[in-house]
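Next comes a single protein record:
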Amino acid sequence: MKVQGNVIIRRMLQCEKCGEIFSKDFNRCPKCRSTRFSGYTVVNPVARLPIESILRVMAHLMWMFGTAACLFLLWQTDSPDTDRNLLLMLAGFAALGASVIVSVALFGMSEMMYRIVRIQLRLRAFFEDQQKQDK
């Protein structure tokens, strides 16, 4: 392992058959079970981070910030002015509702991205099998 700036760079193996990059702790490729490696490749783990994980983290953060904003605004309703208290309560619940809607949308996009990647992998494997059978 090597550290460059704030990013840890690890050396990993790359399968000759399918191109999958995996840890050198495995004896076989986790994707195709091949034992042929093309040697070490340097991998930046941030570059390999799937977009669906980023969307999921953003959805969790959005939900947490909305909840915190709602609680903060509700905490401020200790004024003797009832109109101000009502406005703060309305703003707090609006912030919570907006954060829930945005986080549900981000979770949905994350799930769609995950499924799209799975479908693409299956299609690639299907077409590679078709090409092998045609030859």
Remarks:
- The radius of gyration is 24 Å.
